[in-house]
Design goal:
The protein contains nine helices and seven strands; from the N terminus they run E-H-E-H-H-E-H-E-H-E-H-E-H-H-H-E. By secondary structure, the protein is α/β, with parallel strands linked by helices. The chain has a single domain, classed as LmbE-like (Rossmann fold), CATH 3.40.50. The longest helix is centred in the N-terminal third of the chain and has 16 residues. The two termini are 21 Å apart.
């Protein structure tokens, strides 16, 4: 089922978007955050893997990525600063959690890099990170429970594309769902991974998930594009430059009618 925005009973609730990396929410649903801000519904963006790289050497793979991003050893700080600019454009409140990006994480016992290649980024979480899922779940539950809002719309990635940090984020949220009855969990399509993994969205409808379409105005789309461009270090990961990036999100927005969020339909007992 798909519908437009309405002044429903949940409009006054707090919206918290979980971004595995600083760019994920801006890329995937930045226009919606701007529209919510214009309607007086200031959203929050919690970036999960916003920590600095641990001390010591990094893997050749991580070094190659840093070189491409042009961030050097200050990758964590650079990406946090980009996020501050992006969130300011969208009217959202940022929060940065201390977990490092997966490319820097090591086996806590052996010291080996857990994700030393492009291929290793897109698969199951390493077994050595079971404890990290629990750690993140506990941190999120504590943060949610101490918040001022009685009810929260929590929006997390569907994990389209299968990136391990997206999997980490979703696994942690689904581990605490039963402990946080005031939380309503929604899911967003990970952009641009959704462009190559859209078949999953068809499967969701067959599994009794519902989708809601949030229309995006022309000013909202323009601000969405600007918020994406604020993550300048990440543009080269997916696009040849900012014009191609802006064209891709415009085409996607026009095709979907805005930003779609999904949630599981709860069966009545």
């Amino acid at each position: 089922m798909e519908s437009g925005v309405s002044n429903g009973p949940h409009d006054s609730m707090t919206w918290v978007y979980l971004s595995p990396h600083s760019d994920d929410v801006a890329f995937s649903c930045g226009g919606l955050l701007w529209e919510q801000a214009q309607a007086g519904q200031a959203a929050q963006v919690w970036t999960i893997c916003a920590g600095d790289p641990p001390p010591g050497p990094i893997s050749p793979f991580a070094q190659a990525l840093q070189d491409r991003w042009g961030v050097g050893k200050s990758s964590g700080e650079r990406r946090r600063q980009e996020d501050l600019v992006s969130c300011n454009l969208l009217g959202a409140v940022p929060r940065h959690l201390p977990i490092p990006d997966c490319i820097y994480r090591r086996d806590p016992d052996r010291g080996d890099f857990l994700y030393p290649s492009e291929e290793s980024l897109f698969g199951p979480l390493h077994p050595a990170e079971d404890g990290l899922v629990e750690q993140l779940a506990g941190l999120l539950e504590q943060t949610i429970s101490t918040g001022t809002a009685r009810e929260v719309n929590l929006v997390c990635p569907l994990t389209l594309g299968g990136h391990v940090d997206h999997r980490l984020t979703r696994a942690a949220i689904e581990r605490i769902q039963s402990h946080c009855p005031a939380v309503r969990v929604w899911y967003y399509a990970d952009f641009p991974y959704v462009l190559d993994d859209s078949a999953v969205l068809v499967q969701l409808a067959q599994k009794r998930w519902e989708a809601q379409v949030f229309p995006i105005s022309a000013p909202g789309l323009q601000t969405w594009q600007r918020s994406m461009a604020a993550h300048a270090s990440q543009v080269s990961t997916f696009w040849s430059g900012i014009p191609e990036m802006q064209a891709s999100i415009q085409a996607y927005c026009e095709e979907t009618g805005g930003v779609r969020l999904w949630r599981k339909i709860v069966a009545l007992r």
